[in-house]
Give the backbone structure.
Amino acid sequence: MNEDLRNIVLGVLATGVSASFGWLGRTYSWRRRLRRKRDFLGLPGGSECLLVVNREPGGSSGSVHRFDVFALLELCSLVKECGAHARIVPHDEARQGFGDRTELCLGGPGSNRRTAAHLGTLLPGLTVNVDAERGPDQASFLIGSERYLMVPGTEEYVILARLMAGEDCRPVFLFCGQRAITNQAATRYLARHCERLARRYRSASFVLLLKVVNSGAYGPDVVELVADVTEAARTAPAAVRAAT
């Protein structure tokens, strides 16, 4: 074998070895990110989760707002990415406890009884105005002593929460918005920032208040993190504590 041929062979071998190490590194990184996402969402491969669907306020029985349908599609995509399976359950048929499997609960307490139950049980410091009459307080959030009003199409709020009932329990995720488009904004925020949230919170509960900016022009895409309101949302008001 002459020197030129030997150099060519060595170059090909070096390229192959480098490519192999690069492929192994990318595969390891991808598997690590997937494992972190599965742990954060409580969705190991082959597992089943509950996707609790709300109803459209004022709509016909069983109807779902189109923005909530879009939100469901985004959640199903996230579940599929983890190699898990989603069982879709109407909110008024989800009569079971929580913690055995991951639950993704879509919509506020006015359109989802399951959300209303979770708020009362797990987030006593968070109150949502569910009055149907139009007014300045319609769909407003009261978190601790702070109230967040809705300006439809301009400034709207949504709660994204991950709630853990215990160390060995699967999480409950709440997407509790003032309007259907804000529910979709919260699901999209979770999908986009899942890795960052997993690194920050790991196995802990959190309650994030998000603001959807100018949804009339930007849809569910422009979302700002207002605050982490976990402590305030999980603390019952003083009057309630005194009564108990």
Q: What stands out?
A: Helices lie at 3-41, 66-81, 113-122, 180-201, 215-218, 230-234, 238-243. The chain has a mean pLDDT of 86. The first helix runs from residue 3 to 41. The radius of gyration is 22 Å.
